[in-house]
Design brief:
60% of the residues lie in helices and 0% in strands. It contains 9 helices and no strands. Helix 1 packs parallel to helix 2, helix 1 packs across helix 5 and helix 6 runs parallel beside helix 8. The model has no long low-confidence stretch (mean pLDDT 89).
Length: 188
């Protein structure tokens, strides 16, 4: 499983401190990107609280919202939820939210490509050490990762589609010849 639990923790720490971040259109995220059920539960409660107008969440607010959902509440208890919330809110700095978000989304992006059958080893080789692969992944932006995979698709498309003959030329080529021809017989 391609997932950064550490980045998920940092992101969730920000959401717990400021649940309105879950509603920000610039930083869209889907609950399914959190691949651990415990993380999904925390994200869902933050999101739901934000839609109700909460600006921050205490452990009591969080537990009050979660208690009616028995299986999710049990998962919360099994993972020492109150201690987790306290720890991640202490360790995260909301001013770094964008960094946490981008790093987390890189993993989600790679997982999405992996799920549909692409080889992601160029960006993150799961057979190698996590430290070396994180260093490699930090060299790329999400846009560069997406452009890489789109480029692979365009190359295949070019090789196998024949939508008629297309003539290509470099702008400005034969300029002098065209200019002289227009002098001899102008279009207007």
């Amino acid at each position: 499983m391609l997932y950064s639990s550490h980045m998920a923790d940092m992101l969730l720490g920000c959401y717990l401190q400021d649940p309105t971040l879950t509603l920000n259109e610039k930083y869209k995220i889907d609950a399914s990107e959190f691949q651990i059920l415990f993380h999904q539960i925390i994200y869902a409660i933050c999101y739901n609280c934000a839609t109700e107008g909460y600006k921050s969440l205490s452990i009591m607010d969080f537990e009050k919202r979660l208690e009616p959902y028995k299986s999710q509440y049990q998962c919360y208890l099994d993972n020492n939820g109150a201690e987790y919330i306290e720890t991640v809110t202490e360790l995260t700095d909301v001013s770094n939210f964008e960094v946490y978000y981008k790093e987390f989304r890189k993993f989600s992006c790679l997982q999405a490509y992996k799920d549909i059958g692409f080889n992601i080893d160029e960006f993150y080789d799961e057979t190698k050490s996590e430290e070396s692969q994180l260093e490699n992944l930090n060299k790329y932006t999400i846009e560069e990762i997406i452009n890489h995979f789109e480029g692979l698709q365009v190359d295949v498309k070019r090789r196998f589609t024949n939508n008629g003959v297309k003539e290509e030329y470099l702008a400005g080529s034969d300029f002098i010849y065209s200019k002289e021809r227009y002098k001899e017989s102008p279009l207007i």
